[in-house]
Amino acid sequence: xxxxxxxxxxxxxxxxxxxxxxxxxxxxxxxxxxxxxxxxxxxxxxxxxxxxxxxxxxxxxxxxxxxxxxxxxxxxxxxxxxxxxxxxxxxxxxxxxxxxxxxxxxxxxxxxxxxxxxxxxxxxxxxxxxxxxxxxxxxxxxxxxx
Length: 146
Description:
Elements (H helix, E strand, L loop, with lengths): L4 H18 L7 E3 L5 E14 L3 H17 L5 H22 L2 E11 L4 E6 L10 E5 L2 E4 L4
Antiparallel strand pairs: 1-4, 2-3, 2-5, 3-4, 5-6
């Protein structure tokens, strides 16, 4: 391999790694199913475990980074072996980091017009069943008691 091609290959690998890792985003802190600002009453609160779906992207990104790092070690067939071991180890580590599950809270709201909405958030809600809330694109706001 020519010395001139090495920077090109490294740049290509770095661009590929960046594009793969860009897909490894976390869930937003909350999701509102109705986009406008509305007032309602909390009817239900429950927790649920959801599976993360980024295991494949984590494995690919980890393999790429591990292969690049392994390629920096040794010479000749030792370098090839280090690249393969680095790619395999990176794929395993990337898969483990991206897979798994997380706990989310699902809050049921009955709006004043009788319609229902569900809000999903990653943190424990600061509301109780029966609380009055305002739901907007910015999240959920607890309203004072009347």
